[in-house]
């Protein structure tokens, strides 16, 4: 194979809440269908491998129960590594807990503060009300401009710093905080979203945007051959029509 | 009984009668109104009934049917919520229908399956004599939240009935942890090492870290999911030896399993008349509950081979000239067990997957990406055709496509009437994997085509 992407699934052992693996599977298949190689490496908690070899890093959402284990590992040096990779233009897809983790901190509803890695300028505050349901948002032009349908399930309300661009504008549902109409965040090649679990399979345009960004960074050019997305598009349209 | 209670009983019976006339199930609504009139109605009606309550993520209905059969074998008149209405209102309806107008019970024994979240409200009124916790898996995140949250719900519920014997799955590190804090008498059931070949550690475990100290568990063996011989290398929390243990799964067939048991050290053989490994767990858990409430070993073992489950749990239908099996799926763990079962089917078959996302199914369909549908790829030679259906048929189609089945080999058919009509005319056995509300609808159509009982009977 001429081209190949190295994909890292970071913390698959704890950040794997509900179908997150579907995103990895989706990226891998869509590369292989086009004759581009894909090598997926899982880096669980305590793994020693560095992030340096990877073109694309995926971080999913997790359960509160395991958060403590995760924070300890992050602050053993993984946080510095993630920040460096983001600055270096590595493509990151971060979801839910993984997305919140990219920010400065998370403050629980009863005022306890958890320090995160501060890779991007956002903070999250725990709310009383859970924001649950199917939702959709329109990505900004710089994030490809596609419409994304997904499912959100979070009580954290995320607020972006003044200089940070959102990933998109909420069309239906809550998004970052249910107040300002923003959804997710986009910085360099880092994409953060509340669209939990398997967001990529039903949003093939968004998936291809990520793959193209990673290929471009690695090979300086990228022409993704079109695929037959009849099934993906049908799934996208089916839920989009309902919300 | 005071006036309020009698009025509530009257209203409940009337509403139930009306909903039956209208051919509605009428399982929950009458109880809801009765409870408005008399909030402690269930406590009053359950006072003189000796009850086994069954909760946990998967296997509640099947376990309840086995305990019910064991009670019947032992000559006990038994009340059960067979329709699957397992919240406070539905359970109250069942008890009202079991009582005279003055509130005296007609049958003295009850087997009640209870929703994990509802247990907190149900147990203090129901006051069961024994509680079975079948297992805990990730399930319907939008409804229950995290699995540890469900565990704490059950802990709270059981703590309201300290006199009840608690039968827990020894192989489930989450369930077993109930024993760490509860004062109840604990009885363990499970599969012993070597009963089945150990599985490789699965990529996605619902409980990888110690519930007590958060270190990663080590396993002597895994029977499926996170169930098995777990132990924590850091704090020493580990699987407790099972009082009711399956020592060997001798044979697994499409219609059932043969097992060897050790019942408090005594060796016995048993036949289970439902297939798949998860039903071996259901069997031994139910056996424990039946025997702990006084059923003899012979009656309890006979029940394992005699009970009828139906209602979408490996339920068998005759469709034209072929067999059809309805295999309810609700979450990744249960779904993987059904896929396990399909891997062992010898003849070519048609697979129908019906995915709904209504409240009772869970509105979030993400879970289908945690279930190992990739296994279908390895048995593709045995699959005549995959048909997807239900409100989220297209999501299922995409999932199957990414599992490695070409999109051309997947058909979408939304209308159950058309679907069943087509299946009637072909020559391969059919396996249905519906989610809960899809199962209810599909079952109605199947019953019309095949003949059978309505769900509330």
* Main sheet characteristics of chain B: 9 strands, mixed
* Main CATH class of chain A: Alpha Beta
Q: Low-confidence parts of chain A, pLDDT < 50 over ≥5 residues?
A: none
From the N-terminal CA to the C-terminal CA of chain B, the straight-line distance is 29 Å
CATH H-level superfamily title of chain A = Class I glutamine amidotransferase (GATase) domain
CATH architecture of chain A: 3-Layer(aba) Sandwich
Shape of chain A: globular
What level of helicity do the residues of chain A show? 25-40%
- Quaternary arrangement of the chains shown? heterodimer
Strands of chain B, total number: 17
| Helix content range of chain B | 25-40%
SSE arrangement of chain A, N to C: EHEEHEHEEEEEEEEHH
CATH fold call of chain A: Rossmann fold
CATH fold node name of the largest domain in chain B = UDP-N-acetylmuramoyl-L-alanine:D-glutamate ligase
Secondary structural class of chain B: alpha/beta
* Number of helical segments with 4 or more residues of chain A: 5
- Major β-sheet strand ordering of chain A: 2-1-3-4-12-11
How much beta of chain A, percentage-wise?
25-35%
Instruction: Give the N-to-C terminal Cα separation of chain A.
Output: 41 Å
Return the domain count of chain A: 1
